[in-house]
Amino acid sequence: MIKLIDKGYKYLLLQLSDFLGIAKTIVVSLKSIEGRKKYENLFGKKVKDKKETIKVYVLHTNQSLLIDFISHLFKKPTSSAIFHDYIHSKNSNFKIIFQDTNKKNKKNVKSNRCCITLVLQTLLSDFFEDTLDVLKRKINIPYKVKPLIVKGKDYMETVLPLDQILAFQHIKTFKGYLGNLFALNPSLDSYFNDLQVSMGYMPQLEELAFNNIFKLEVSRCKLGYSNLESFIRDYNQNQAIGQELKIRSKEKITLSSYRRNLKMIYPYLDKYAGLLIQECRNLNLIGDKIWIWDRRFFECNCSGLKNKETGLLSDPDAGHYVKKTGKYSVLSGTGYTDTCIVDSWWGLPIYWDAVNASKNDNTIFQDTINQCMESTTVKPFFVIADAGPDSHPSNETVVEKGVIPIIAARKNSAGNILKTEKGTHFRAKYIPRIYHKLLGKLYNIRTTVERKNSNDVVGYNRSKTPTRGKVWAKTYVSISNIAALLTALTAFKVGRHELIRAPGAFRRLNI
């Protein structure tokens, strides 16, 4: 009989001794060096060391961590590395594996798939009274915040006729006229008139003045004209548009002069938009608590075919866009991308740009965040985005700005992934623990930017620009967003908050 001693006892019967009638017992201890040598002499092989099995768990959104309750043991802020050293110093047999998403262990990370804790699972935190305020309280995230209280007579009394004032106050179906946009926002005339004087420009016709050119372009957006030629033709033939905009001259304008003056005011549109955005902040229309990013594709006046000699498109700044929108449907075309950041309260834009549509979501998102943060001193708490820009660099770009990224992760993402009740995934590495339970509510706010994009496409018919070039694409995007800001300010000043983000408001002509 051979007896092996190693943590437990194992018995191995030597069959030859049964035939000889001799029973011999040999005790071999595998814990000592001599016992291991004796084992090698008896069996002619070395002792196999047992491999420790390491259990890896995937944490759910509602899962509490031990580190949440022992952080007071450390003087410095507790991190994964400090926690790792602390555990190793107390018990050398306890091991924690921290996995990185580098290329060497990418296959190993993908293979470590474990169960995810259900939402209804009882947690350890449910029995701690000190954490009830953070983990169990009901938190309501406001989707819309009421603007400041405004009295209609403060803005309308000396500006609008009495019948329109009464209509705004008592007729809910009355949505105003196109001229209300410009009558209740006098900063428009003052800004562009001062700009024209500073540039020393003297237009030949009244219609070609900077303020009138801007009004005409905003009117073209509100009325849903897709191209310039049809709008200018209707303006020259129909005097109602000029009367609505209070343009007294009845001279006809040409397409070339209209495009020339519109191109002259393009560099100054962003500055005027900044004045409107600041006014919206003062009136509590923009809260700057949660920002939402998304991109929207729009076509340009380009066939999409490259020149055989130069290898470039007829619009060299544009790019080809392809996106799968369904199981058997694909959205494709040549044009630009409207990369926009909107505020969560009323869906008003606070930053926008037009870029090549062929660029990747990660590149566009990172550039947009960097440029937006450089253009303003205001900083939100959260930035929400869909799974398009999901990557570590995109999350790190937001974190470097001191903002928490709520960027949806793809289902096949590696690492510590959180999962909400609706099945949306997030990277837990970049989201603080106290916000894990709010991920579902926060991500629901992302539909705000989708409604804004829908207003541009359906309400304003802004799905294709009739021009070519990056300058015209940026002008096209700026006019759309400025029209949304003017609509919100006008709705606030007439006391009709339900019209703040209604593309159909202030569109009719007062004939």
Structure description:
- Helices cover 38% and strands 13% of the residues.
- The longest helix is centred in the last third of the chain and has 24 residues.
- The chain is built from 20 helices and 11 strands.
- The chain is of the alpha/beta class and 511 residues long.
The outline comes out as: elongated
Poorly predicted ranges: 7-14, 72-84, 90-122, 128-139
Average pLDDT reading: 80
Helix content: 25-40%
CATH class bucket of the largest domain = Alpha Beta
Number of strands: 11
Summing up helix and strand content along with how strands pair, one would put the structural category as alpha/beta
Q: Architecture of the largest domain in CATH?
A: 2-Layer Sandwich
Tell me the number of structural domains.
3
Major β-sheet annotation: 8 strands, mixed
Helical segment count: 20
Under CATH, the topology of the largest domain can be stated as Nucleotidyltransferase, domain 5
Pfam families: DDE_Tnp_1 (PF01609)
Organism: Methanosarcina vacuolata Z-761
Protein name: Transposase IS4-like domain-containing protein
Domain Transposase IS4-like: 347-454
